[in-house]
UniProtKB/TrEMBL annotation:
<dbReference type="InterPro" id="IPR008274">
    <property type="entry name" value="AldOxase/xan_DH_MoCoBD1"/>
</dbReference>
<dbReference type="InterPro" id="IPR016208">
    <property type="entry name" value="Ald_Oxase/xanthine_DH-like"/>
</dbReference>
<dbReference type="GO" id="GO:0016491">
    <property type="term" value="F:oxidoreductase activity"/>
</dbReference>
<dbReference type="InterPro" id="IPR036856">
    <property type="entry name" value="Ald_Oxase/Xan_DH_a/b_sf"/>
</dbReference>
<dbReference type="Pfam" id="PF01315">
    <property type="entry name" value="Ald_Xan_dh_C"/>
</dbReference>
<dbReference type="Pfam" id="PF02738">
    <property type="entry name" value="MoCoBD_1"/>
</dbReference>
<dbReference type="InterPro" id="IPR000674">
    <property type="entry name" value="Ald_Oxase/Xan_DH_a/b"/>
</dbReference>
<keyword id="KW-0560">Oxidoreductase</keyword>
<protein>
    <submittedName>
        <fullName>Molybdopterin-dependent oxidoreductase</fullName>
    </submittedName>
</protein>
<dbReference type="InterPro" id="IPR037165">
    <property type="entry name" value="AldOxase/xan_DH_Mopterin-bd_sf"/>
</dbReference>
<dbReference type="Pfam" id="PF20256">
    <property type="entry name" value="MoCoBD_2"/>
</dbReference>
<dbReference type="InterPro" id="IPR046867">
    <property type="entry name" value="AldOxase/xan_DH_MoCoBD2"/>
</dbReference>
<dbReference type="GO" id="GO:0005506">
    <property type="term" value="F:iron ion binding"/>
</dbReference>
<keyword id="KW-0500">Molybdenum</keyword>
<feature type="region of interest" description="Disordered">
    <location>
        <begin position="305"/>
        <end position="324"/>
    </location>
</feature>
<feature type="domain" description="Aldehyde oxidase/xanthine dehydrogenase a/b hammerhead">
    <location>
        <begin position="21"/>
        <end position="129"/>
    </location>
</feature>
Length: 739
């Protein structure tokens, strides 16, 4: 009887016990003899230069081994490819580029000694006023280079239409709105850390990263060390959300310090330092203008954004091009983006970078249009449903967004919604109740990935790739995929990841890791079982020796032929072979020139806003996702719920406040940067419409890491409008905006 595959079922995390018992080792948990501790010194002005640093007291403080500053530097090289990261290296000059930048590294025997000494460093500056006001930069904003091949400004106009503004002017109905959101910080539970251990000219770096390979390459580039001599180990990552996809300068600085001191060195960032030494999501100001016929057919979509970046590099949000560009059918379409370079820390990828901000604007605007036209918001979206990527003739490899709307509306009870704003209260009349919905869209990305499958004489199979598990469940996904491809129980699969020495993998970002390893595991398993079959036929000690190739086949962990069924472990033992293995890359799938690849979803939520205090509270959330086949139903639900919670935080709570005079991030801590906690989060009903997307890849699997956070803030804003009649254009939706 064929074994029941765990693929698509709800599987508990195989690393769950390790995580809850403290057995899982994160970057800073690795211990070494003579381990020294680094502590960063950061600038306390926003722009200017360092005149002098008095390090005497720090150097004489107990336990201190070294105080590195621009006056006693470690040699580092600024990264040439600064996409997503900063464009300068610390300690190489005395310039202050932003408040909270690295200006020193104190290394001492203990963390406490290093922290104490860092506080004794006296720095004097020549300060200049930083450019820190986002709005003041609009007039001099510039068009950024293409992001992932998409130009920042694009127009698709019907024949005879001279401009998007003409198309809007000719539309029967128009709605226009400005939308804004503050800087947001990732605030992964695990702060960034680096532990560097040199031996024989090679360095091993323990650090939480989304991409062990990229991290190793980046560290080599920053330090000038031969890439072949940098080994990154990162088995567990306490959240990343894009901020551990690139390398921040604290990592190479620690590697260089360890080399200079001839001792292992570990540097752990404080929560406050993670705000400025690593990345954040840009602040974004957007304008959407929609033109439509009276019966709700879009005739023009115009979506422009300003996003902040840093004069010190990084990657700004790119909203319109990744949402309005791809979301709805419209004969006339304009997307545009400009960036404002400020003297602030460096923006980077943050969960659905671009789709997140863009969807808040377009999905709020679509709600406004629906209200204006008195058309149901789902019906309005269906009247403009795109079946080809707008402006092209490329159909989606698989698109079932219409089913998401249908299934979600049914499960949520959308039909009970009263479309008239401020018309529903709860039983005692204290809370205004509203419902809102929105669309989620995120590109299905494919990056090069290799996987090794190794069949071992003890009957286990090792499945490995240099990807990462940043809480996403990749350890379990690899085990499930291995069990499925080989037809063996989950318990016999030994996954391995989080190590740059494993088969090459771009890492876990762009919601692409599962979609990369899924076809990769299959291809490697096929190759490995073919090698096993050859061994069975060729090896004189094999019971299958000399049989015709067609008479022996692999199935469910065994070789089968001539009336015999022999497990691969037994066969390997009989033939005295420790293991057979194969490394393969997943086949590419359909041609991107012919197809568009995206995942989709629909959010539905109910909010309650207190009649007197304006306090908004979510009471229900339903999200339906179209992302191809789901590998682990339990982890996938968690992943989508986590994305929705990210959106709830964005909608109601989050925002990094920049002090305009100094460029200081004024609430760089978890007391004042508000994140959703359990009472802020209702039950989230997550469902999947599963259609194998075998045009995308042979495994039919797309990604889900970022999708849940696309559109979820708009769903909340739309529900708040339905509850109160107030349209909040400026996130977060705090109670003062509802009074
Ligand atoms: Mo994601 S922002 O690509 O880690």
């Amino acid at each position: 009887m064929p074994r029941r595959s765990p693929f698509g079922t709800a599987v508990n995390r195989i690393d769950g016990r390790l995580k809850v018992t403290g057995g899982a080792r994160y970057g800073a948990d690795f211990r070494f003899d003579r381990l020294a501790n680094g502590y960063l010194v950061v600038s306390t002005i926003g722009r200017g230069s360092i005149r002098s640093m008095d390090t005497g007291a720090a150097e004489h403080s107990p336990g201190v081994l070294a105080v590195f500053t621009p006056f006693n530097p470690l040699k580092l090289f600024a990264p040439a490819d600064a996409a997503g990261a900063q464009n300068w290296a610390p300690l190489q000059d005395t310039e202050i580029r932003y408040h909270g930048q690295i200006i020193g590294l104190v290394v001492a025997e203990t963390f406490e000694q290093a922290r104490n000494a860092a506080a004794l460093v006296r720095t004097s500056y020549d300060a200049r006023p930083p450019a820190a006001s986002f709005e003041a930069g609009f007039p001099t904003a510039t068009i950024p280079p293409p992001s992932f091949g998409e130009p920042a400004v694009q127009d698709f106009l019907a024949p005879g239409v001279s401009s998007i503004d003409d198309a809007l002017a000719a539309s029967e109905v128009t709605v226009t709105g400005d939308y804004s959101q503050p800087i947001e910080n990732h605030n992964a539970m695990e702060p960034h850390s680096t532990t560097a251990v040199w031996q024989d000219g090679h360095v091993t770096v323990y650090s939480g990263t989304q991409s062990p390979n990229r991290h190793a390459g980046d560290i080599a580039a920053w330090t000038g060390v031969d890439p072949a001599k940098v080994h990154v180990i990162s088995p567990f990552v306490g959240g990343g959300f894009g901020n551990k996809a690139t390398t921040w300068s604290c990592a190479p600085l620690t590697v260089a310090a360890a080399q200079a001191l001839g001792r292992p060195v570990r540097t752990v960032l404080t929560r406050e330092q993670t705000f400025t030494v690593t990345g954040h999501r840009s602040t974004v100001a957007q304008t959407v203008a929609l033109g439509a016929t009276r019966d709700g057919v879009l005739t023009a979509v115009k979506h422009d954004a300003y996003s902040s970046t840093s004069a010190s590099g990084g990657r700004p949000e790119s909203g319109p091009g990744t949402t309005s560009r791809v979301l709805y059918r419209s004969p006339n379409l304009h997307v545009g983006q400009k960036v404002v370079a400020l003297d602030v820390p460096v923006p980077t990828f943050m969960r659905a970078p671009g789709e997140n901000s863009g969807s808040f604007a377009i999905e709020s605007a679509m709600d406004e249009l629906a209200i204006r036209l008195r058309i149901d918001p789902i019906e309005l979206r269906m009247r403009n449903y795109a079946t080809v990527l707008p402006g092209t003739d490329r159909a989606w490899s698989s698109k079932h967004l219409d089913e998401c709307y249908r299934v979600g509306a049914e499960a949520f009870g959308w039909a009970r919604r009263n479309p008239v704003p401020r018309s529903v209260t709860n039983e005692d009349g204290e809370w205004l109740v509203g419902m809102g919905m929105s669309t989620a869209i995120y590109p299905a990305n494919r990056f090069a990935t290799s996987v090794k499958v190794r069949l071992q004489a003890d009957g286990t199979a090792a499945v490995s790739s240099a990807t990462a598990d940043l809480g996403t469940g990749m350890w379990t996904v690899l085990a499930i995929l291995g069990a499925d491809a080989l037809g063996i129980p989950l318990e016999r699969v030994r996954p391995d990841l989080g190590d740059s020495a494993l088969p090459n993998n771009y890492g876990a970002f762009g919601s692409a890791s599962t979609a990369g390893v899924a076809p990769g595991v299959r291809a490697a398993a096929d190759s490995a079982t073919r090698a096993l079959t050859r061994l069975a036929l060729d090896n004189p000690r094999s019971p299958f020796h000399g049989m015709a190739p067609d008479d022996v086949r692999y199935g469910d962990g065994s070789l089968i032929g001539g009336g015999r069924t022999i497990g691969f472990g037994t066969l390997l033992e009989l033939t005295g072979t420790p293991a057979v293995e194969a490394t393969e890359s997943g086949p590419a799938g359909g041609d991107p020139a012919k197809y568009a690849f995206h995942s989709f979803g629909a959010h539905f939520c109910e909010v309650r806003v207190h009649r007197l205090t304006g306090e908004p509270r979510l009471s229900r959330f339903t999200t339906v996702i179209d992302a191809g086949l789901i590998v682990n139903m339990k982890a996938a639900r968690s992943q989508i719920a986590g994305g929705v919670i990210f959106g709830i935080g964005q909608a109601l709570l989050e925002g990094t406040r920049v002090e305009a005079a100094t460029g200081r991030f004024a609430n760089a801590n978890l007391a004042e940067y508000l994140l959703p906690v359990n009472p802020d989060v209702p039950d989230i009903d997550v469902r999947f419409v599963q259609h194998a997307d075998t045009v995308f890849n042979p495994a039919g699997v797309r990604g889900i890491g970022e999708l849940g956070t696309v559109g979820s803030a708009a769903a909340v804003a739309n529900a708040v409008h339905n509850a109160t009649g107030r349209r909040v254009h400026d996130l977060p939706i705090t109670l003062d905006k509802l009074l």
